[in-house]
Batch of 2 targets.
Target 1
Amino acid sequence: MAGADYFGAHRRKSSEPRLWVLMYHRILPLDDPRFALEEPGMIVQPDTFDMHLKELQKHFDVVSLSEWVHANQNSDPVPKKACAITFDDGWLDNYEYALPVLKAHGLPATLFVVAEKMGTDFQFWPNIVAGLLHGGAGAELARHPVFREAISSQSREGNREAIAVTIQRLKVHTDDTIFQALADLNWRTLLDKPLAPALMNWQQVKEMQDTEQVEIGSHTCSHRRLNGDVAQDALHHEIVHSKALLEEQTGRPVDLFCFPNGDYTAPALDLVQRHYLAAVTTRSGINRGETLQSHELTRLGMHDDISNSRRRFNARLSGWI
Ligand SMILES: [Zn+2]
């Protein structure tokens, strides 16, 4: 939108407290082999991230999300324009590429990790599917009814945008269904080369936390999407047990939750409200201090294509696009 970069709310004085929450996933440079295997919407390059942090400091008080929510809930003063930085999933590349940039700028961030998967060889199913398509195993994948409809000829040829469409289409299935289908296909044997490790180990998580800049939040135990297909005992495990696991691993209170894929039902929200100070969604928007729903915080998703120049990044911060 014309002028969004210059006239957005982030550029103007605010009469009421507002909170911008930025959502990042992976931080990878273009020449990293992992870059080509990931959906474009998931990645910001390290130089872009560095530029983001410089810009943020011009417009905002960059805050720790838990501290801001805590102060706001207690009616303590909060900055008129605050911004919190969040990372979803706990990718190893956050440790490799985001941490040095955060340290250089001395800014806080929240890392939402998948409690039962850190330090394991877990792979997210979209990366398995992308790895198979890039590796030329599209025909084998299409033999399974779960994948057949979702795969296009372009995605079989390894086109990144087409693979992203395939992944979106697959979301009509539950995570359990997709993982079962991949297991049926014995997916590891179909890869042309093994996938790079996805997640950090606990030592790396702790190293991030020990900077006193990074706080850890829960992104469930297994990254299961909390939609209508999840039974109550599984919901309890994903939401309540993940908190206990993370508190044991980190030795700190875990007050923040992040819904995988932004999906949740009323019972999921209820459990999160009872066990956490606040939670973030994938809904887009800027939060207003007085009216915000602490357990349904909106965020602004960041990826390189829409934020790799100061103008584009500022337009994104306007919340208009
Ligand atoms: Zn996630």
Note: The first helix runs from residue 4 to 7.
Target 2
Amino acid sequence: MITGSCLCGALAYEVDGPFDLLAHCHCSMCRKHHGAPFATFVGAPASGFRWLRGEPVAYRSSLASVRHHCATCGAKSPAASAKGTAVFLPAGNLPGDLPGVDALGMHIYVGSKAPWHVIADALPQHETLPPGWPVPEVDRPVPPALDGATHGSCLCGGVRFRVTGKPARWMQCHCSRCRRGRSAAHGSNTFYPVAQFAWLAGQELVRTYKVPDAQRFVVSFCERCGGGAPSQREGVPFVLVPAALLDTDPGTRPEAHIHVASKASWFTIAGDLPQHAELPPA
Ligand SMILES: [Zn+2]
Ligand SMILES: [Zn+2]
Ligand SMILES: [Zn+2]
């Protein structure tokens, strides 16, 4: 039996398994909802799933799908399959060590992946869904770039912003807080100087959750859709923008993997980006 929980702990559940699926989904809806380069779901029979506490907020992202998140920390919560026989659990909210699950891995909706994200591992890749899967996901329309800036938005489009130029830093972060807060294998965090960032709409929809025992760690999300949102804080010279929120290609690329010592057992880091056990050298 495995226990899962959101970042703040308000939502918790347990699942018996056996786990029969590990899907890394690159669809634009998952990327916006999680604020991560892709979402990862572990599948198990619904009969072995039980809520322990909390009730997530629901947001209907398309005719075919309702997505759920924690009202306090924005972490994403499990969803039932269309027939109700299976449950799909965001892997980032399960223990980081899930023996054997990595062997089930596959990439889905690779045709929709972020232009700046490189899939470097050797897992099977599906353009959309594997043959025989019942419910097609619907991609989110990509808003046009308007003025030469890079625009960004949450899943529902209520939160909108623009950035100009290049971010000061761009890190693929594998720390346990990013994994639980984004409900994903890792975060992909850009840091834009405040002068290069502007809100366009929906700043009042942004909720920010600070981990009580963390010095600085915060995660921001749209209270309506649960989608990722930028974190701008008083006195901090950079705005943290999850790269998954960018609607157009910013032209730059992630520079390194950080907190690799904390990464999930079910995710293999491949490719040639530098890897740092914790933070990068100053
Ligand atoms: Zn929570
Ligand atoms: Zn998806
Ligand atoms: Zn939203």
Note: The chain has a mean pLDDT of 93.
